[in-house]
Amino acid sequence: MNLFVVFALVGLVAGKPHSHKGNGNRPSSEGVVTNNYPTCGVATFENLISHYIVGGQQAVPNSWPWQVLLRKGTSSLTCGGSLVVGRDGTLKVVTAAHCTAGSRASQWTVVLGAHHLTSTHTTNTHWFQTTVSAIIQHANYNSNTLNNDVSIMILAQQPPVKPEIQPVCLAKTTYTAGEACWVTGWGTTTSGGSISPTLQEVQKNLVSVATCRAAYGQADITDGMLCGGEAGIDACQGDSGGPLVCKRGSSYELVGIVSWGYGCGFEGYPGVYANVHYYNSWLSANL
User: What residue stretch is flagged as signal peptide (predicted)?
Assistant: First the structure.
């Protein structure tokens, strides 16, 4: 079976990606201005969901204020990420380990408040760009199985406090099959297609672990993974590391990190995500 990792620079690959070694050292936040974010997971605008990503639509600009655009080198899009608040009160980025594996912090640029990929701070007043001072990659990330596919990026500079740039909450509880969630990103709208110039969104239902294991194989879906989507609705290349969020009460929680799948929205093969609730202890210790 040919699998792909939804990573803009990887595209379609045969099997899972070969091994890389990342930076697992915990960095210092010295010199970073601390911001206070008493709330999290508050969407800026009400989203009008229909059935791009694959099978969705263009998002209302800045309606998902935790959405992060990650660029490695000169790439316009490498991966996505989610803005979260750390224990020290500073904003940090949660993304996929397969995005950061084998890379250096100095290679990355983080863009917040983005909607159009070609925008800059002169054309988008909400646009904020910074470099990465350090990467904390899960020490047990496995590039063959894509287990433990989670990394944290430490921002070199903190953004201004504004409604268009806000953190998402981390999932506090487990989520069950059938719950409606949302995935966002600038990835391709068809498998192997072109990336989207604007942020896309799609609503998708979570799928049970049993159903997902029946599709991919018992050993391929670990406890650190969850699945969601249906035929024609999915994340795709370039969406890697981005958020899968579900709403609890008035707030959105980060439930999954876009990881891998078979094709994009192929019937019988839901998208696979790193299970954020499963990694709560690791995230709490490293954020």
Answer: 1-15
The yes-or-no answer on residue 75 being catalytic is no
Number of domains in the chain: 1
Pairing type for strands 251-261 and 169-170 reads parallel
pLDDT in tens, 60-107: 899 999 999 999 999 999 999 999 999 999 999 999 999 999 999 999
Instruction: Please confirm, yes or no, whether 220 is among the known catalytic residues.
Output: no
Which residue do the tokens 């792909």 mark?
4
Which residue among 29, 63, 143, 240 is the active-site one? 240
Active-site residue, from 98, 115, 138, 277:
98
In this prediction the pTM is 0.84
CA gap 235, 237 in Å, rounded:
7
Domain contains 92: no
DSSP class of residue 175? -
- CATH number of the domain within which 225 lies: 2.40.10.10
For residue 123, give both structure tokens: 């054309």
Domain extent, residue 224, equals 169-275
- Catalytic status, residue 240: yes
Residue 179 domain flag: yes
